Amino acid sequence: MGSRLGGVAAVKLGSRSSRIAVPTVWIAMLAVLAIAGPMQAQSDQCLVLGSPEFDTRINLQDNSTSDATFSIDARSTSAAAGDGVFSESEAPTRTSPSNPFAILTESWGAGDFWSDSFSVLKPLAQSGASYQETAAEGNKPGRDSKESSSVIVPDKRPVDRNRNIYYKNKLEFSLEGGWLPINIPFPFDFLLGSGYNFPGLYYTLVPVVASVRWQLDDVGGPRVWRGNWDVTFSGSVTAIPRGAETRYFSYMMGIRRNFVPRRWTVVPYLDGQLGLGEIDAKGPLGVAYAQGQNFTFTLNLGSGVRYDFSPRYGIQAGMHYMHISNLYLSQPKFLNYGINVYGPWVGVNIRLGKHQRGTSR
Questions:
Q1: Are β-strands 75-80 and 40-42 bridged in parallel, bridged antiparallel, or unpaired?
Q2: Which residue from 276, 320, 316 is spatially nearest to 301, judged by alpha carbons?
Q3: Which CATH architecture has domain 161-352?
Q4: Residue 17, SS3?
Q5: Farthest CA pair distance, the chain
Q6: Where are the alpha helices (DSSP H) in the chain?
Q7: Half-sphere exposure for 278 (CA within 13 Å, toward CB)
Q8: Tens digits of per-residue pLDDT, 163-203?
Q9: pTM confidence score
Q10: Average model confidence (pLDDT) for the chain?
C-alpha cells in the first residue's frame, strides 16, 4: 500500500511475505532512481529516501501500525501512522552501517547528482529573498526625495562681484595724488569764532600719499548706507609750487566709508584723515601770511568714486580738500593763517596678500 506524508513518498509493507521480492525491488528502484531522482532503498526494517539535504527513513513493523521517522537537515520528525501524532526532536542524521544502500546514498550524496536533485529549491528561495529585499529597498520612505534633492539647480541670479572686492580684513596698498590749486577760507571757522577771513597769500599744493587700507567688515547695512568701512594709515610728501613755503611732510590716519550698492561696478566713497607734519615755515622769516612755525597739523577730506578691474587692482578719482595750520601755537608772536586748498584727486589700489572671499548682506 502506498501513501504520501508531508510531501514525501512513503511505502508501507504490511506482511513478512513481501520480503521475498525485496532484492528484485531494490534492483528496479536503483534503475529508476538513476534516471528520475533521489534513490529509494529498502532494508529489512526501513526504507531510506536520502540526499545530503533531505534524509527520510520509514521504520517498518509487522503489526498494522507502523512508525515512520523523517530526518530533514539534522532535524528528525516521528509520526505514528495509527494515531496521527507527530513529534519533533533535534538529532543528528545517522546512517546505519548495516544498511548498504544508506552507505551508497552517502557516497552518491558527495557528488553533484544528489545536490542537483534538490537544487531547484535554492534558486526559488534566493530569488524570493532578493525580490523582497529589492522591494523593501524600493519602498523605503524618503529615498526618492533624497535622490531628487541631490540634483543641483544652478543659481541664475546675477553674481555680485563686489563680494570679492570689499570684505573683512582685506589689506590694500594705495598710491594717491592730487593737484590742489583752489584756495578757500577755513570751513570750520565758525567753531573758532572767526569770520571766514581769506588771507592774501595763495597756495597750490601737490601731495603724493602712500597708504595702507584695512577693511574692517564685510558689505552690509541699509540700502542707502550699504557698504563697509576701512581704516587708512598714510605718509605723504607735498610739493608747494605756489606759496611762501616749498615742501611739507606728514603722517596721517583716517577712516573711509565705501558705499557698495548691489552689483554696482563704480562705488562711491567718503574719507577723512587727521595727522601732523613739518613744513619749512617762512612766517618767522618775515614773509606775510606765511606759516608761523615748522610743526603743523593737517586735516584731509575727500570724496569720489572707485572702479576695480579685478579683486586685486582698482583705481579711484574724486575731489580732495587739504588744510595745514599750527592751531595758533605760534601766537601771539606769529599769527597763524593756515592753508586751505582743494582740487582733483586720483589714485590706484592694489590688494596685499591672498584673496579671501567675503560675504554680502
A1: unpaired
A2: 320
A3: Beta Barrel (2.40)
A4: helix
A5: 159
A6: 22-36, 100-109, 112-117, 121-138, 143-149, 189-192
A7: 0
A8: 899 999 999 999 999 999 999 999 888 777 777 778 889 99
A9: 0.57
A10: 73
